Amino acid sequence: MPKLGWSEILLIAFVVLLLFGGKKIPELMRGLGRGVREFKDAKDNGKKELDESAPEKTRKAS
Fold it and tell me: What is the pTM of this model?
């Protein structure tokens, strides 16, 4: 994957601003944050369930 410089990042930010407008961007970021939080919670819950369901010998060996 190519590395992005500051000029490319600014160009992408400018295009996003033009496409969505200043009022829509905070709403999009809130939705993205909620999605990331839900993903993290689901990952943590899945890991917790796996740890609880593992036999005692497996837990001690880890």
Answer: 0.54
**Cα separation, 14 vs 62, whole angstroms:** 49
> In terms of residue numbers, what domain contains 33?
22-61
* CA–CA distance, 17 with 12 (Å, rounded to integer): 9
Number of domains present in the structure of the chain: 1
Distances (CA, A) of 29 to 6, 35, 38: 21, 10, 14
pLDDT in tens, 3-42: 889 999 999 989 988 988 888 888 988 999 999 999 999 9
Residue 29 is assigned to a structural domain of this protein = yes
